[in-house]
């Protein structure tokens, strides 16, 4: 157990450094974009991105994160931060646009060439299709909460890291077609409301099972939860109620925003601004065609 705690501490430091680097690179690009009034990322988007990174840090590198070995409720809170709350905040910050400006010029050119290669472009297009994003998130949610797999992640530093990484990655995938951040082409789509509705089903099934089950599903918490004044079964029910409530609320808010955006009349772009906007957001033609396919 001591070895696990030392490994987790080292991983937390590494994750913290990576998040700080991502934030600094974002801010460098954001400041660069501020010099162009048409291409700038609004301050609220920058705040959204930084808040998303902070919540990732809270979930995986703060002192709170260590408590997920003691309470299922804390584990569920981490899962919600990584899959449901932090990803949309990160995408709302338009990180790809800011990062692309924050990188050195030679790296930007190299990445632009790399993303034109079919071997990268084709899998990328398939990866962000809504059905793939939905299935990936549902598989991560259900798979990691199978008791045997859950216990493996709780007892192994490596598998615990894999579990948390998969929550974040599939969360980012899930929210991509909903938020549609740059460089994807923003198209208000009412089908995304159904996408969100069906995404609640795996959460409802899992949380409903945990709430109404009359036994402790994850025995790893039998000896720890009582230390905090919880029974193991009460901790399990609290964790399930937290997931049920949070997911429903977040998806309901997202669905309302999507419906408002889809039903609102679009404002035509001033023809005088079109050349400037195209110049600021220019990407290679073949890349743009692939992005429009999203």
For the record, the count of structural domains works out to 1
Count of alpha/pi helices? 13
Global structural class: mainly alpha
Runs in which pLDDT lies below 50 for 5 or more consecutive residues are 1-7, 269-294
Give the percentage of residues in beta strands.
Answer: under 5%
Radius of gyration, CA atoms, in whole angstroms: 21 Å
What does the overall shape look like?
Answer: globular
Helix content: over 70%
The number of strands is 0
Overall mean pLDDT score? 83
H/E topology pattern: HHHHHHHHHHHHH
N-to-C CA distance: 46 Å
Strand count, sense and closure of the main sheet? none
Could you name the key traits of this structure?
globular; disordered C terminus; mainly alpha; 73% helix; 13 helices; 294 residues
Provide a quick synopsis of the model.
By secondary structure, the protein is mainly α.
Describe the structure.
The protein is mainly α. It has one domain (2-292). 73% of the residues lie in helices and 0% in strands. It contains 13 helices and no strands. It has helices at 2-34, 43-60, 72-92, 95-102, 105-114, 118-127, 130-144, 147-155, 157-179, 191-212, 232-263, 274-280, 285-292. Helix 1 crosses helix 4 (95-102), helix 7 (130-144) runs parallel beside helix 10 (191-212) and helix 8 packs across helix 9. The longest helix has 33 residues, at 2-34.
Tell me the layout of helices and strands.
Elements: H1 2-34, H2 43-60, H3 72-92, H4 95-102, H5 105-114, H6 118-127, H7 130-144, H8 147-155, H9 157-179, H10 191-212, H11 232-263, H12 274-280, H13 285-292
Helix pairs in contact: 1-2, 1-4, 2-3, 3-9, 3-11, 7-9, 7-10, 8-9, 10-11
């Amino acid at each position: 157990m001591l070895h696990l705690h030392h490994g987790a501490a080292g991983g937390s430091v590494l994750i913290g450094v990576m998040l700080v680097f991502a934030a600094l690179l974002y801010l460098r690009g954001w400041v660069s974009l501020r010099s162009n009034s048409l291409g700038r990322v609004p301050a609220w988007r920058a705040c959204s991105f930084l808040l998303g990174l902070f919540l990732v840090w809270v979930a995986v590198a703060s002192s709170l994160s260590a408590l997920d070995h003691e309470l299922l409720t804390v584990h569920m809170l981490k899962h919600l931060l990584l899959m449901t709350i932090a990803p949309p905040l990160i995408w709302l910050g338009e990180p790809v646009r800011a990062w692309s400006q924050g990188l050195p010029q030679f790296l930007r050119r190299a990445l632009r060439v790399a993303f034109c290669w079919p071997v990268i472009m084709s899998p990328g297009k398939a990866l962000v299709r809504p059905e793939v994003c939905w299935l990936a998130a549902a598989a991560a949610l259900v798979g990691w909460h199978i008791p045997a797999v859950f216990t493996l992640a709780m007892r192994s530093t490596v598998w615990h890291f894999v579990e948390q990484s998969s929550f974040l990655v599939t969360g980012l995938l899930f929210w991509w077609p909903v938020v549609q951040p740059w460089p994807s082409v923003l198209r208000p789509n009412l089908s995304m409301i159904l996408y969100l509705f069906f995404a609640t089903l795996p959460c409802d099934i899992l949380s409903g099972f945990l709430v109404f089950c009359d036994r402790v599903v994850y025995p790893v918490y039998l000896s720890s939860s009582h230390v905090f004044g919880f029974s193991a079964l009460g901790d399990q029910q609290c964790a399930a109620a937290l997931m049920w409530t949070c997911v429903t609320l977040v998806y309901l808010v997202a669905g309302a925003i999507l419906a408002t955006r889809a039903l609102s009349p679009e404002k035509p772009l001033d023809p005088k601004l079109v050349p400037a906007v195209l110049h600021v957001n220019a990407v290679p033609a073949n890349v743009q065609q692939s992005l429009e396919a999203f």
